[in-house]
Target: HGF factor
Amino acid sequence: ESKGKRRNPLHDFKKTGELMLIKINKTLEVKTKLLNTTEQCAKRCSRNKGLSFTCKAFAYDRVTKRCHWLSFNSLTNGVRKKQDHAFDLYEKKDYVRNCIIGKGADYKGTISVTKSGIQCQAWNSMIPHEH
Model:
């Protein structure tokens, strides 16, 4: 009798080693807490547990074992990247991928033009097409 293995929460994240994100825009939110593993950080980020914002990424400080949950990612305006040997950056794939899978219902990326370069219609607009 085999016990089912749980899915590793890190599979939903893109890892970039030795990188931290610095917020220039003061309205962007960050929350930190001591946690022993990156898996624990990923699980809380995925569930937004105890966070007042949608977690788009987290940075894990390997030295202090501190998790920094971020309301932003490397593609967000008002953010800059900083090389830091103590940190590993984990960004939710849904927010950094530039492709649409299936019908795109879960797409959260930043592409706003068609393959031929035409600007996409805003979701709140019914012109030129109805949704």
The longest strand covers residues 79-92.
